[in-house]
């Protein structure tokens, strides 16, 4: 595994630690980044301010599924920057219709509500579901409920943290939005017991990413689909992290041929260039929205629509999905070989892995710092679980290099303890 000799024209090196020290007093401490200061990137490689290169095995939490600065996406962005960037939705523009038509076709659904961030897509999906419950299902006003799964991660707004069970994400941010019921993930009986005539929707991640890449049993998603259909409530699939090629299919629900009523997309939809998210839904559901009832100044702007359409171009080839599926077996087999050698358990689907490391070897954070020393960027989730989600453009050789670095890190750690 060799890093490209040059990512960008030579720059004057700057001190990473000086830059980190300078930002600390002026930047909110809502993140605890690894001690690396990135200055430029291409494909799966990033380069820091001191000229060191790292393999990016996080890919912006799957916002960079196509790698850093994919040439086709950069070209689409440049072309659009030279023509039109923002109109607001007060007017039509010539890029949005094409983007919406193609996104609906890609996902097998009918109508698109363009937003910007993932959390906004989740909020918008909840609003659409509640309105559908009142206008179509006939739930008494103010009584609609949404059933969610324990261990979920759907974003950071006040309503979304209201139905999180992560104390760090919630603590100190109440009062919380009512109308949510939490059931264990991957438990159809518990879900069935929680659904009643007030239920507008069941909101789930088809794979729980932040929880540690938790993959439900085969048949769970099909079961949720049948249950929601039978009980006349909507299935909202949050595919903001799992969608758009990551798992080896366009969507994670495709593994069970499940079509949700409402699909939430974000992250990779913006090609790693601009924030682009969307709610995609069946016509009967999305039709509950009328003018003035929801919106966003930046949602569906021309630059976002142009980049989003270029992302769809890439996905329509199917090449990223099949590459993710193929290299997913390399990732799976590599982790299987490390099981018992520092790895206590792991879950993979496509190019996405949650890796539980023996806690006696260190926290997830410790391991990420050691991998950083080895030139590999990853991020821990909870406890001693780390997640790997490289750009879908990674080569077999690069992936094997990352797995070797993980093996070395675990051995060095074992030797040190
Ligand atoms: C990242 C993420 C979100 C929130 O997206 P933001 O763009 O950070 O607001 C929501 N749901 C899931 C599953 C995510 O992974």
From TrEMBL:
Family that this chain belongs to: Belongs to the class-III pyridoxal-phosphate-dependent aminotransferase family.
Species per Swiss-Prot/TrEMBL record: Streptomyces natalensis ATCC 27448
Listed cofactors: pyridoxal 5'-phosphate
Biological or metabolic pathway of the protein: Amino-acid biosynthesis; L-proline biosynthesis; L-glutamate 5-semialdehyde from L-ornithine: step 1/1
Sorted UniProt keywords: Amino-acid biosynthesis, Aminotransferase, Proline biosynthesis, Pyridoxal phosphate, Transferase
One MF annotation (Gene Ontology) recorded for this entry: pyridoxal phosphate binding
Keyword Methyltransferase listed: no
Coiled coil: none
E.C. numbers: 2.6.1.13
UniProt-listed PANTHER family: AMINOTRANSFERASE CLASS III, ORNITHINE AMINOTRANSFERASE, MITOCHONDRIAL
Main EC class the enzyme belongs to: transferase
Source taxon at top rank: Bacteria
Protein name: ornithine aminotransferase
Gene3D superfamilies found in the cross-reference section: Aspartate Aminotransferase, domain 1, Type I PLP-dependent aspartate aminotransferase-like (Major domain)
GO biological process, one term: L-proline biosynthetic process
